[in-house]
């Protein structure tokens, strides 16, 4: 394996230069990119640029056919389960922020199993465990304990928690974790601390190198993403694509997924600095798919129902539904504990029906714990 | 037409189907029935092994349809062997499509791990059909360790790009002592026809049928293609030539 981490690659790039390159793209660049079967990062710049706006339908069509060929008429279903909303970070956009005076809760074994029973009753077999960052309450031992507790009930367990050490990811892998999601939030290194003002999350570089540690630990899938609304989404998404490119070449046995959460209102959070329109989100989804045929693209309940209905046919490959973003929220909903308000409040079965109407099949199980 | 025999089992159809990517289990079942296939492969990871009434399996099961579990998702021989044992127990068959693709992007099979796993699984009395790259030497090595067939790819899985590995497939077919099933990349009935005309024993198709506008009709098209190709092979196709026969400048003096 080659030495070096993504930080070494990242240091070769300059935010403003990348941004200028994206905004200088012309229709010629877009058509050139679309004429290719294998696209590079410069082609991706063209597809996410303002110059690509008139090509939205062409891009969407190509995204759809490419996704169909690779993933078929299927959408993978998963449910997030919040284990804790304790958090020692201060993040300006997050409902769990330390300075946000909301009730805090970490689930006990009994409460976890209560949640499991409800989530299983919806039909789910793939679960995503989520916590804030509070090492006293929710450390690696708590996580492993929770994973082993729920493992008999789910074929596929993913986790979205704070960046961990290599050996901690190895322990997660041994415990049966399939995927780890760590979003960089923004690749704008200078402005990163405007949003992450206090706590361990304020360490930009440590977070940036986290996917390397997950890859080294042999976790099956790594989830990447930026929080759309913080900085220019085109430039941030370019860096995310560059990160994906780097990781795919280095950790070639690992699968990757990308999410593109748009900042949603939450208790005590500052509103988005940048607004991304629905058209721009379709452009981004299509661009990712045309750039990378194999990456999984995920859309959560942050998005509104009309958009989600149409996204089924645009290149998205996994969906959550009926989600609760508060710990214990499936068995005992409590809005005061939420990380963010969900936008699409339909149940898992309602979403599965919507998917079916569109000629797709909702997939509930696509993994075996023994792998 | 000659019957296909794999591990002493006779097949009336030389078309095998995959079960992924269909828009619904009903569409999948209709396509399976229309294709005339007698063996379909199903990913173990998609099956709820604790549920006797698994919806996917229930839609496939039929008197004349044989389930061929596959190990899709495993990354090495060790995981493949575990998956094989689970599949044998859960689906009550010792037939196995062995596929080990550590590369999740192109799903290209790992030849080293596949050979290792095949060697072990053969000792455990599995009937192994390994999915592999179109590597003639690997095919012979797999045959030697006891696989019941070989399943070389025509082009990357799901690509619909047809028989890009044609030159290697010809060698594999020419020297194989076990049935050769061309798997992956067959994107149109014409690709299947070509495979069968070349002398392949069977083809396995999934994406081209599952994501077609009308999967059931496409399954029929593949059925006809496979039958036409096989009939042409058995009828002994005329050989192609690039030589003109009209004159023989070098040998006419002998007349």
Question: What is the secondary structure topology, with strand pairs?
Answer:
The complex is a heterodimer of chains A (371) and B (255).
Chain A: H1 6-10, H2 15-23, H3 27-34, H4 41-47, H5 56-71, E1 74-82, E2 90-91, H6 109-121, E3 126-130, H7 140-150, E4 156-160, H8 166-175, E5 177-181, H9 192-195, E6 196-198, H10 204-208, H11 210-216, E7 221-225, H12 233-250, E8 255-259, H13 278-291, E9 296-299, H14 305-311, E10 318-320, H15 348-357, E11 361-363
Helix pairs in contact in A: 3-4, 4-13, 5-13, 7-8
Chain B: E1 4-6, E2 9-11, E3 15-18, H1 25-35, E4 39-43, H2 55-60, E5 66-70, H3 77-91, E6 95-98, H4 111-123, E7 127-132, H5 136-145, E8 151-152, H6 166-175, E9 181-183, H7 189-198, E10 202-205, H8 207-210, H9 215-234
Parallel strand pairs in B: 3-4, 3-10, 4-5, 6-7, 7-8, 9-10
Antiparallel strand pairs in B: 1-2
Descriptive overview:
By secondary structure, chain A is an alpha/beta fold. Chain A has a single domain, classed as Aldolase class I (TIM Barrel, Alpha-Beta Barrel), CATH 3.20.20.70. Chain A is built from 15 helices and eleven strands. An eight-stranded parallel barrel of chain A has the order 1-3-4-5-7-8-9-10, surrounded by five helices. In chain A, strands 2-6 form a two-stranded antiparallel ribbon. The longest helix of chain A has 18 residues, at 233-250. Chain A is globular, with a radius of gyration of 20 Å. Chain A starts with 5 loop residues before the first helix and ends in an 8-residue tail after the last strand. The mean pLDDT of chain A is 92. Chain B has 255 residues and is of the alpha/beta class. Helices cover 39% and strands 15% of the residues of chain B. In chain B, the strands form three sheets. Chain B has a five-stranded parallel beta sheet with strand order 5-4-3-10-9. A three-stranded parallel beta sheet of chain B has the order 6-7-8. In chain B, helix 2 (55-60) links the parallel strand 4 (39-43) and strand 5 (66-70). Chain B is globular, with a radius of gyration of 19 Å. The model of chain B has no long low-confidence stretch (mean pLDDT 90). The A-B interface holds A 68-74, 125, 155, 248, 252-255, 294, 356, 359-361, 363, 365-368, 370-371 and B 20-25, 43-49, 73-75, 79, 82-83, 86, 102-106, 158-160, 207, 210-211.
């Amino acid at each position: 394996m080659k030495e070096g981490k993504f930080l070494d690659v990242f240091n070769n790039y300059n935010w403003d230069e990348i941004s200028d390159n994206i905004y200088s793209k012309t229709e010629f660049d877009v058509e050139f990119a679309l004429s290719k079967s294998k696209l590079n990062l410069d082609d991706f710049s063209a597809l996410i640029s303002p110059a690509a706006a008139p090509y939205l339908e062409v891009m969407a069509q190509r995204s759809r056919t490419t996704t169909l060929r690779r993933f078929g008429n299927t959408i993978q279903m998963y449910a997030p389960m919040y284990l804790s909303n304790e958090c020692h970070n201060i993040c300006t956009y997050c409902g769990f922020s330390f300075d946000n005076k909301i009730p805090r809760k970490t689930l006990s074994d009994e409460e976890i199993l209560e949640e499991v029973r409800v989530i299983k009753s919806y039909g789910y077999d793939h679960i995503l465990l989520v916590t804030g960052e509070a090492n006293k309450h929710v450390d690696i031992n708590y996580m492993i304990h929770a994973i082993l507790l729920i493992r008999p009930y789910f074929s596929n367990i993913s986790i979205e928690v704070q960046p961990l050490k290599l050996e901690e990811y190895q322990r997660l892998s041994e415990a049966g974790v399939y995927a780890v999601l760590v979003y960089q939030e923004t690749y704008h290194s200078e402005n990163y601390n405007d949003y992450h003002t206090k706590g361990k999350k304020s360490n930009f570089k440590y977070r940036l190198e986290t996917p390397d540690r997950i890859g080294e630990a042999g976790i099956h899938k790594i989830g990447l993403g930026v929080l759309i609304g913080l900085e220019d989404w085109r430039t941030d998404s370019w860096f995310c694509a560059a990160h994906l490119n780097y990781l795919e070449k280095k950790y070639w046995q690992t699968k990757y997924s990308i999410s593109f959460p748009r900042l949603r209102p939450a208790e005590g959070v500052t509103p988005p600095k940048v607004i991304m329109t629905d058209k721009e989100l379709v452009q981004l989804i299509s661009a990712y798919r045309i750039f990378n045929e194999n990456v999984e693209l995920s859309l959560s309940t942050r998005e509104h129902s009309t958009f989600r209905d149409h996204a089924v046919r645009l290149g998205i490959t996994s969906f959550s539904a009926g989600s609760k973003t508060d710990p214990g929220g499936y068995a005992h909903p409590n809005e005061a504990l939420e990380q963010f308000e969900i936008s699409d409040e339909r149940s898992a079965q309602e979403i599965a029906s919507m998917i079916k109407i569109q000629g797709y099949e909702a997939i509930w199980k696509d993994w075996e714990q023994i792998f | 037409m000659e019957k296909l025999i794999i591990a002493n089992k006779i097949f009336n159809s030389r078309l095998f189907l995959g079960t992924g990517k269909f828009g619904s289990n009903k569409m999948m079942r209709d396509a399976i029935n229309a294709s005339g296939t007698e063996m379909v492969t199903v990913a173990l990871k998609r099956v709820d092994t604790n549920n006797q009434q698994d919806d996917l399996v229930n839609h496939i099961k039929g008197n004349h349809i044989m389930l061929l579990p596959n190990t899709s998702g495993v990354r090495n021989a060790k995981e493949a062997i575990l998956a094989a044992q689970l599949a044998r127990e859960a689906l009550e068959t010792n037939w196995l499509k062995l596929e080990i693709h550590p590369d999740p992007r192109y799903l290209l099979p790992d030849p080293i791990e596949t050979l290792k796993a095949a060697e072990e699984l053969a000792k455990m009395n599995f009937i192994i059909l390994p999915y592999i790259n179109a590597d003639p030497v690997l095919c012979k090595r797999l045959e030697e360790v006891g696989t019941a067939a070989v399943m070389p790819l025509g082009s990357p899985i799901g690509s619909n790009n047809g028989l890009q590995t044609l030159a290697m497939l010809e060698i594999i077919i020419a020297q194989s002592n076990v049935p050769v099933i061309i798997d992956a990349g067959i994107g149109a009935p014409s690709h299947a026809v070509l495979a069968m005309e070349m002398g392949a024993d069977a083809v396995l198709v999934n994406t081209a049928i599952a994501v077609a506008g009308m999967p059931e009709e496409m399954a029929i098209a593949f059925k006809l293609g496979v039958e036409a190709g096989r009939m042409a092979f058995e009828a002994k196709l005329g050989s192609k030539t690039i030589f003109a026969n009209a004159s023989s400048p070098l040998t006419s003096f002998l007349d």
